[in-house]
Specification:
Distance between the termini: 10 Å
Number of strands: 24
CATH architecture of the largest domain: 4-Layer Sandwich
Shape: globular
Number of domains: 3
Structural class: alpha/beta
Helix content: 25-40%
Number of helices: 20
Radius of gyration: 26 Å
């Protein structure tokens, strides 16, 4: 979750601060840097967003060619300056992404050795351990390796040591790390997104490979030399992504979905999907977390309806703990925007150990999940900075839809004419989404009324139930309004007890095969005097009379693509509700974009 970066370059503070700006979507509780200059490490830290750190640096005349930086998402210890990284002990400063599970035992041992701690974090034990072993006349590499051998858990580390030469070390275990060689210097980071235009060549270290970066070269410690580091070209050298004219990254990314889906409808990628032998599969299991899990839930409906394949979906954090049965000819699909989600990665490794075919559906093609899966499909969403996922979700749905059609084609479960029509339906997506976005003022009017409530129920049926769940998730993520979602048929099995004039209900009610059943559920809501809001078809409007700011009419659209269209009003509703309430929509409290710890 935290973001780390280090640079060995002239005026190294500049690329580190620029990298932290690109990483701030990963953590924004606090931030800090350590700079090595004139045989001294100076550490500057600040609570809150990166702008607070930059303000503190304005009063410092710091220069140096070796620097590490960190932007924090708190796991151990409150978000304050003391717990902010880097953590320093003597001649060692460390930035850490991950969790040290045995830090309490290590801390107790270090206290017995005479060490004193300032923070409540798990990370502070690392510089203390390294410094302790340096004091025993070990070399820098020996001290780091001795310290690392005692750590249990996950970590990606940047280690700055003040010594005869200015060296920056990097090492990982179970957390993402990338090394880059550029024309202007050498860099390490927890995410390739942090690397700037100078990062022409990148390397993804294996677990426990100790990398040394200095002004001369990047070396793989332990007898290897620089020639044994096999770089790949960085085709996506990061640039600072701008909001443009939009008020937030989330708003920008919602409106980008039209162009993204145009590209996906034009670029067929059929040959890519045909690399999977859907015809002989006995089962598909889709594993994901959060928003990606709701995309998987929609995909289940498509695969089963159009291709007649048994599909199970599972929450990544639960998958491997329930001893799932992996069958012959099973495809396990792992969905992660970042490709670094710790729970999803662990689930992937479990499935591979059981000999399942594995497929990664990711937005970052060089990510760990993408590199470890047997097959990788990119969702082509581009960088998504807003913590609450929007365009990545719709792109995940789009790729799943196309995969389901390829599976239907291979398995010949539906007639060719229906398959052709389903493909034509997909081509309607960009224009239909654009029509919805053009009427965003109507959603804003609904948000003004809806955001006055403290609790909201969302209802949907069939493949739209996960869209209701995604709508509730978006609203609670960025507006902090408590929202829950249910399959509409479940209303009378418990949630109906909550209904009164203070409990609004939002129903996704387009015209489809379940419309008449849904009308019955809507009438149950009205009979309990609960405030009713509907995102639905004009057919529903003819039967349910509501004020203009309580009904958003969806365009007439084919049932197959309803989930992708219906999520757009949900995203706008969450965005506008949060803005009306004065919340930071891009950086909601307690959340981070890339969840790299369990």
């Amino acid at each position: 979750m935290c973001g780390i970066i280090g640079a060995v370059a002239k005026s190294a503070i500049t690329p580190v601060l620029e990298g932290l700006a690109r990483l701030e979507y990963r953590g924004y509780d606090s931030s800090g840097i350590s700079i090595l200059a004139n045989n001294e490490i100076k550490t500057i830290k600040a609570q809150g967003t990166l702008s607070n750190l930059k303000q503190r640096l304005l009063s410092q005349a710091l220069e140096g060619d070796c620097c590490i930086g960190h932007t924090r998402w708190a796991t151990h210890g409150r978000a304050n300056v003391t717990n902010a990284h880097p953590h320093q002990c003597g001649q060692v400063s460390v930035v850490h992404n991950g969790i040290i599970e045995n830090y309490l035992q290590l801390k107790q041992k270090l206290i017995q050795w005479g060490h004193h701690f300032n923070s409540s974090t798990d990370s502070e034990v690392i510089p203390h351990l390294i410094n302790h072993y340096l004091s025993q006349q070990m070399t820098q590499e020996q001290a780091i390796k001795k310290a690392i051998a005692q750590l249990k858990g996950s970590y990606a580390l940047g280690v700055l040591i003040n010594g005869v030469s200015n060296n920056l070390y990097a090492i990982k275990q179970g957390s993402p790390l990338v090394i880059s060689q550029g024309n202007e210097g050498a860099y390490m980071a927890s995410d390739a997104m942090a690397l700037g235009a100078d990062s022409g060549k990148i390397y993804y270290p294996k677990d426990n490979e100790l990398i040394k970066l200095n002004s001369h070269e990047i070396t793989l410690c332990g007898g290897a030399n620089n020639n044994e580091i096999h770089y790949i070209n960085n085709k996506h050298c990061a640039k600072l992504v701008s909001k443009g004219t939009r008020s937030s990254f989330m708003e920008k990314e919602i409106f980008e979905q039209v162009d993204l889906l145009k590209r996906l409808s034009v670029n067929n990628h059929t040959s890519e999907y045909s690399t999977i032998n859907f015809k002989d599969l006995t089962k598909i299991t889709i594993i994901a977390c959060g928003t990606s899990y709701y995309a998987a839930s929609v995909a289940k409906a498509w695969f089963e309806k159009y291709a007649n394949i048994l599909v199970e979906i599972d929450i990544a954090s639960e998958y491997r703990y329930r001893s799932p049965i992996v069958t012959n000819n099973e495809l396990a699909i792992f969905v992660s925007q970042s490709g670094e989600t710790a729970d999803t990665l662990a689930a992937l490794r479990y499935a591979k150990s059981k000999k399942a075919q594995t497929l990664a559906l990711v937005n970052v093609v060089n990510s760990t999940i993408a590199r470890e899966a047997n097959f990788t499909f990119e969702i082509y969403a581009g960088p998504e900075i807003g913590v609450a996922s929007t365009k990545a979700f719709s792109c995940q749905l789009a790729i799943f839809y196309k995969m389901a059609l390829e599976a239907a084609k291979q398995r010949a479960f539906i007639e060719k004419a229906e398959l052709t029509q389903l493909a034509l339906n997909f081509a309607q997506l960009p224009d239909t989404i654009e029509k919805v976005l053009q009427r965003c003022a109507e959603i804003k009017s609904m948000a003004k009324k809806l955001c006055k409530y403290s609790n909201i129920l969302f209802l949907g049926r069939g493949a739209l139930t996960p869209i209701a769940q995604e709508g509730a998730l978006k609203l609670k993520e960025i507006s902090y309004i408590h929202a829950e979602a249910y399959a509409a048929g479940e209303l009378k099995h418990g949630p109906i007890a909550l209904l009164d004039e203070h409990m609004p209900v939002l129903v996704i009610a387009p015209k489809n095969a379940l419309t008449d059943k849904l009308l019955s559920n809507i009438q149950e809501v009205q009979a309990r005097n609960a405030p009713l809001f509907i995102i639905g078809d004009k057919y529903i409007r003819e039967h349910i009379h509501l004020q203009e700011d309580q009904f958003f009419e969806l365009p007439a659209i084919p049932e197959s693509i309803l989930p992708i269209i219906s999520v757009i009003p949900m995203q706008l509703l969450a965005l506008y509700s949060a803005q009306i309430l004065g919340k930071n929509v891009d950086q909601p409290r307690n959340l981070a974009k890339s969840v790299t710890v369990e």
